[in-house]
Amino acid sequence: MSKERSEKRQIKLLPVAANAALIVLELVGTAISFRSGGAKNLKYYTVLSNVFALVSSIAFLCSYLRRGGKVSHIAGMMRYIASCCLALTFLTVIFVLVPMAIPYGTAANVLYKGAQIFHHIICPILSCVSFIFFEQGIELPKKAYITAVAPTLTYAAVFVILNLLKAVRGPYPFLHIYEQPVYISVLWFMILCGTALGAAALISRLRKKFSKAS
Description:
By secondary structure, this protein is mainly α. 74% of the residues lie in helices and 0% in strands. The protein has helices at residues 3-37, 45-66, 73-101, 107-111, 116-134, 144-148, 150-164, 182-210. The longest helix is centred in the N-terminal third of the chain and has 35 residues, at 3-37.
């Protein structure tokens, strides 16, 4: 087998290997998460985004293998949205939740203990790297980043309403709307949604630069 053919084969195998790894890692992380908190953990954006990433990787593999390297629009958008949600999870953990936890000595619990090592670190990084550099056959429409932030906006709206109704508390500190001034809640909403939009736009731009859609 020539070097050129070997390189082409390797490129085709990379997205398969990356998404197969994502499936395994997400299953392990989700199993650990559900073992410790059960279905109640589905209230967390982190858990929801990682479960969706699991589904998106399964959809990608089925589409990619069935179509011989091509990916359906739905499967491609699922991978894009999942990667954007996981990017927001990673950024929120690193720049918001860990700094909040440091004074209480619980940063390790937030960052890497239990399911967090999978859901907060490994899977978000692997998903974004795979989508940007490895996953062929996906062509994003213009302004796809607007669609990518829809799940985040939906989650935020639902949990703001539930907190207003006092049906839930949190589950994140910045959602404790009765324990902070209104302007702080509005500021958190703007920061997180702005970060989600910025991450989605950046991932879209990087993908167009580094990965060919065929």
